[in-house]
Amino acid sequence: MIASKAIPRSLTSASGMGFPVISTGCKNVRDIKFIPLQTECYDLIIRKADAAKQPYRKILDIVTSKGYRLDLENIGGFNTRETGKIL
Question: Using CA atoms in the order 71, 77, 79, 80, what is the torsion angle rounded to 10 degrees?
């Protein structure tokens, strides 16, 4: 850690100030190029008893929508094959 400077909270700020940055991220953000290190999958787990309650219902409505999937595809770097799948 560098004592003379506070490390910026945002990755883009940190990178712009010359700090080395390692983070997970999507393809490209503005002119920052990310090098993909591995593929990761994320699951959202909600108890069935809570699935009909707010805010869980709103979250499920969003992640199962076609618009959400299209937004992720437009960002790039996301495999949306199982996005919104409820088990």
Answer: 0
